[in-house]
């Protein structure tokens, strides 16, 4: 019986994790829940899963304390945004296994996170990184030639820059494959999400940026691939369903039965792959540069993006202006060479302030 704490329990990752737990009551026990604002749903979840009121909390600070205070085997961090960093660090310090869906905390924290983590302590819950972790079981680290991240291409695959500049927030939220929150869905439309995942893959698997590639795969069935030195490629394939990587995050390296449907090979399938147009979708190229620069640059990339996404949905800027704004803020950044939690948080505050100022000036 694995004892589970779920941070972000009222969001997409959290609610699906609870569905898996409900279907497998002999394997899991929920011992803690945390949400950002949805107190009514949190209360209902706590009642359903017999979680004491004191262990069902609201807010990132309370979530951080919950992780430190409650005994558990696995913490699922499904919080959206860089506010997930403190709970991530608290989880690692406590020695609990971290099923990480909050990619921002790893990207913003960088070596602050990786230096705390024991071998095997962080299990990725992103579908792409879960796929890479599964494929990497097929060879030794020295045999890995390349990591290949797949991207659906979002709702605007094939668009020109001019076409992207004219899309509406409502259009940006209509992802062709996945159902996600507003920030992640918008990040998928701009490909910022794939840029963040590129940095995440580097940090999780310690593979150089020049050996991590992105390919567009609209069907979202091949979740990512690993190419080995002999030329062979291993891919993890399943119909789009986040329950598979969520379940693996809770049970790694074991699997449980009937988590999600498998590909039905008694039927015909066509899977396509094409190169990413990095001139139209510049977010990935910028993320690669930011990742190589390290220090507080990734924190600035992420914070500027979060401000830009809000401005886009408020009708203040266009979709293409999101990445333009990120680039402008990064150009002005002078990083602190002494990386610490304080320097990361200060860099984020600075980036949000500069981004807001540029937005106000119609940069």
Spans of at least 5 consecutive residues with low confidence: none
The percent range for strand residues is 15-25%
Question: What's the number of helices?
Answer: 16
CATH fold title of the domain at 2-124: Rossmann fold
For the record, the CATH architecture of the domain at 2-124 stands as 3-Layer(aba) Sandwich
Name the CATH class of the domain at 2-124. Answer: Alpha Beta
Structural class: alpha/beta
Integer-rounded radius of gyration: 20 Å
Largest sheet: 6 strands, parallel
H/E element string? EHEHEHEHEHHEHEHHHHEEEHEHHHH
Q: Give the proportion of residues in helices.
A: 40-55%
Short description:
This protein has 363 residues and is α/β, with parallel strands linked by helices.
Task: Explain what the structure shows.
It contains 16 helices and eleven strands. With 363 residues, the chain is an alpha/beta fold. Among the domains are: 2-124, Rossmann fold; 295-363, Orthogonal Bundle (Rna Polymerase Sigma Factor, Chain: A), CATH 1.10.1740.10. The mean pLDDT is 95.
Spell out the key features of this protein.
363 residues, 5-stranded mixed beta sheet, single chain, alpha/beta, 6-stranded parallel beta sheet, Rna Polymerase Sigma Factor, Chain: A, 45% helix
What layout of secondary structure does this protein have?
Layout lengths: L1 E6 L4 H12 L4 E8 L3 H10 L7 E3 L1 H10 L4 E4 L7 H10 L2 E4 L2 H7 L1 H4 L7 E3 L2 H10 L7 E8 L9 H4 L4 H4 L9 H9 L1 H14 L6 E5 L5 E7 L4 E5 L5 H9 L22 E2 L7 H11 L3 H17 L5 H14 L8 H20 L3
Parallel strand pairs: 1-2, 1-4, 2-3, 4-5, 5-6, 7-8
Antiparallel strand pairs: 7-9, 8-11, 9-10
Helix pairs in contact: 3-4, 5-11, 5-14, 7-11, 11-13, 14-15, 14-16, 15-16
